[in-house]
Amino acid sequence: MNKIILADSQAIFRAGMAKVLGTDDDFRIIAQCSDTERMMHAATTFPGALVLFASVLKPELSRLKVLLETVGSRGIVIAENTESPLIFVQQGFSGVILRNSTGAALVECVRRVAAGETWQPLQAVLADASVEDMVGTRVRDRLTPKEMRIVALIVQGCKNREIATRLKTTEQVIKNYLRSIYDKTGVSDRLELALFTLHHRVLAEAAADVGSRIEAEEQADSANTAEISKPGKVQSIARTGT
């Protein structure tokens, strides 16, 4: 049984990796970490584990490498699609997998590293990135602005009730939109939708941009509400009759 520690700031991606790796009886997920500090603690607590960590956590690679060697563990880097795997290979990590790699590639990578081998993306995988972007672009262009807002919040891990509240609508409306989104993306549930979005760079960037705009709108609404609720403002409104 190979003990696995998953470390990624994106909870939905961690859940997706756990789901993929959980189908193999030889793998056991013993910890999921959202930041570098928790990952380092888990690596110390569970020696001899395989540590899959996202490059976006930006750990001090030399320090992490020494820690893993000390506790008899091996590290696999989950690199962003635009990063060069060679950087991490040169740092001495046993495996590198791109974030947009398939589930089968992830499993194969973990198996190889667990067996004492090394793994890095094939050139063919890198070449396919442009094809994946074409898929992401096509889906992005098919989604309506309202659907894209829902996708952005799904990626953030929001449930239907929270999405309905933040978009000022009802849960039933959100469910209706989700059916349309599932049809357009070819997925069957919200986890697959989030992973599909993160897998395609163009779509992921669009969702991140929309998510930022939603947060900016909410902050502006909060500021306006706070301004209106000031005593002087209330009196002024009362006098003008507005």
Please summarize what this structure is:
The chain is α/β, with parallel strands linked by helices and 242 residues long.
Mind explaining what this structure looks like?
The chain is α/β, with parallel strands linked by helices. The chain has two domains: 2-127, Rossmann fold, CATH 3.40.50; 129-228, Arc Repressor Mutant, subunit A (Orthogonal Bundle), CATH 1.10.10.10. It contains 13 helices and five strands. The protein has a five-stranded parallel sheet with strand order 2-1-3-4-5, with helices on both faces. The longest helix has 28 residues, at 201-228. It is globular.
Identify the notable features of this structure and list them briefly.
Arc Repressor Mutant, subunit A; globular; alpha/beta; 242 residues; Rossmann fold; 5-stranded parallel sheet; 5 strands
